Amino acid sequence: MRQRERGWENRLADNETSEAGSLSPSRRPELRLPGRCSNCPLRNLTVYDTSRAEDAAAVEALRRRCATFAARRIICYEGDAPSELYQVFDGWAFRYKVTRDGRRQILSFVLPGDLIDLPLLNADRTTHAVKALTAISVCVFSRAELVDFIYGDDRRARRAGAAFAAQSAATDEQLLDLGQRSAFERIARLLSHLAAQLRRRGLAETGGCRLPLTQMHIADATGLTAVHVGRTLREMRKSDLLSLAQGWLTITDPKRLEAI
Amino acid sequence: MRQRERGWENRLADNETSEAGSLSPSRRPELRLPGRCSNCPLRNLTVYDTSRAEDAAAVEALRRRCATFAARRIICYEGDAPSELYQVFDGWAFRYKVTRDGRRQILSFVLPGDLIDLPLLNADRTTHAVKALTAISVCVFSRAELVDFIYGDDRRARRAGAAFAAQSAATDEQLLDLGQRSAFERIARLLSHLAAQLRRRGLAETGGCRLPLTQMHIADATGLTAVHVGRTLREMRKSDLLSLAQGWLTITDPKRLEAI
DNA sequence: CGACACCTTGATAGTGCTCAATCGGCGTGG
DNA sequence: CCACGCCGATTGAGCACTATCAAGGTGTCG
User: Fold this and answer.
1) pLDDT, tens digit, 9 for 90 and up, residues A22-31
2) Where are the beta strands (DSSP E) in chain B?
3) How far is CA A161 from the centre of its chain?
């Protein structure tokens, strides 16, 4: 049975403030902070639709404040019943679960525009922990108020439902990946999926995109070990499929990648 | 790369009518059909709450008809946009996805009381196929009507949301299982989880419960091969943990099982 | 400069897969 | 009524994929 010693990452306390690893200060992009909802670049990517001016105003009135979290900060633990909800504006986080003997599974990465822990709209306890991957900035809402806002109007409730359906489709894909696909396929699909997400949010450049994942994160997301992820990534680089180094992902052969 | 020849099961046409495998007619329970919603034994287990008489009447008015499907009948394919929704009354089904080269992942088993494909409340295409495992009986609703009914009242919409949250928690657990746990653990947890579900629905007896799964189904649900499932099941039997034979599951040592 | 995180590489081991054969049960058709 | 076909379970032998263990290298930060 695999049993992994708790890494340093798991020992971090709530007030950990160190920065993300491998980027030199010059290459580390600075954290952007949320502004007005009405011209938010993410406004048509969220659970609530703020493309109409009155809705944008309503959401902005609902927003309690903005906040930031340092990289590696644990945002919530499994079983918490937070009274506030966070919506990511900039930076990355991830949702994960841990077994009793310390093995970690990353369930999904949370990107700008995503509500951290969507099911909290309909349950009062989280079923997984969340951690900031990079420094992140978020908009903060009262859970009760946001829930009432969304369920106060059936158009909004349906849109939230659509977000649920989308997330459910994504996790179904993940189950297929974890259950049936090889290491090579899993990693290829994870990176390809993340690149697509970033493109949709306008966070990718033509030469590739910033991907602040360590091999350990990829390993925990795909159910592999970091060592094996490293080897597979080398294979991919050698066969000119893609390359991932220094937090930068370049997809060399998008066609072949899609075919996997 | 594993590549599995399409088994006979995948070749079945829509109108397949043969019965489920290994039970002799005497042991095969007969299929029960739905009656009045007001005294439905499943009434507090569904997406809509019919414990109040008026709600029960509303749902019953909404129900178009009852229907049955033969075992092994494919109920819908990935990508379908059905105009009707089914709620299982008796029997088992399962949701699954298939890769291009024929590997199958069972996403979940659908038990009495479950709406087949919950996300269809919020999306118009399915992202997975569904197949009857045994013969099943269902209540049939118009999708549009049921959606309007649920979103027409925010209490009902919230309850449907809670169903979403519950399913999301379940699939998160599954991701942890598939990504991080050994074959032994996965099988133990799957069977233990199914037994708990059946107990909650009053479908378990003290000596165990009926489990109409072949080793192939368990394999596809856990991401293993049927051969390896067989070996692991033998180990479990030998160590007096549980036994599964002839469609009957007996949990010999519930305590030790929970500890896994 | 040292500590630490992260990546890389090598050697070795093990879990679970593949291929193949056998056997019993059930359904079908002569 | 019996033969045959087919599915599902079981077992064995061999191997592939991935994990484990260990060591060394690089870059960043204090």
Assistant:
1) 444 445 567 8
2) 65-69, 74-76, 84-90, 93-98, 104-110, 129-132, 136-142, 204-205, 208-210, 242-245, 248-251
3) 19
Residue A204 CB neighbours (<10 A)? 19
- pLDDT of res. A29: 66
Please tell me which residue of chain B has the smallest CA distance to A160. B122
Site of tokens 């992994």: A4
B138 contacts B86 by C-beta, under 8 angstroms: yes
Say what the pLDDT of residue A28 is: 58
CA of A220 to C1' of D26 (A): 24
Any strand C atom closer than 7 Å to B2 CB: yes
Amino acid at B120: L
CB count within 10 Å of CB B8 equals 7
Q: What is the torsional sign of CA A212, A217, A223, A225?
A: positive
pLDDT tens, position by position, A78-123? 999 999 999 999 999 999 999 998 899 999 999 999 999 999 999 9
C-beta neighbour count of B42 within 10 angstroms: 20
- In B, minimum Cα distance to A177 occurs at B105
- Between the alpha carbon of residue A124 and those of residues A84, A98, B143, the distances in Å are 11, 20, 28
CB B18 within 8 A of CB B72: yes
Closest C-alpha to A167, from A109, A216, A126: A109
Query: HSE-up of A51 (CA within 13 Å, CB side)?
Result: 6
Cα–Cα distance for residue pair B196/B54, rounded to 1 Å = 31
Strand order in the sheet with A129-132: A74-76, A129-132, A93-98, A104-110
Is residue B133 within 8 A of residue B93, CB to CB? The reply is: yes
The series of mean pLDDT values per 10 residues for chain B, 260 residues long, is 43 35 50 83 80 84 91 92 94 95 94 94 95 93 94 91 94 96 96 92 85 94 96 91 86 84
Residue (of B104, B88, B96, B93) closest to B71 by Cα position: B93
Please give the pLDDT value at position A44: 75
Spatial contact of B81 and B124, defined as CB atoms under 8 Å apart: yes
Protein-covered nucleotides on strand D (Cβ within 7 A): 6-13, 17-22, 27-30
Mind spelling out the 3-state secondary structure of B73-120? CEEECCCCCCCEEEEEEECCEEEEEECCCCCEEEEEEECCCCECCHHH
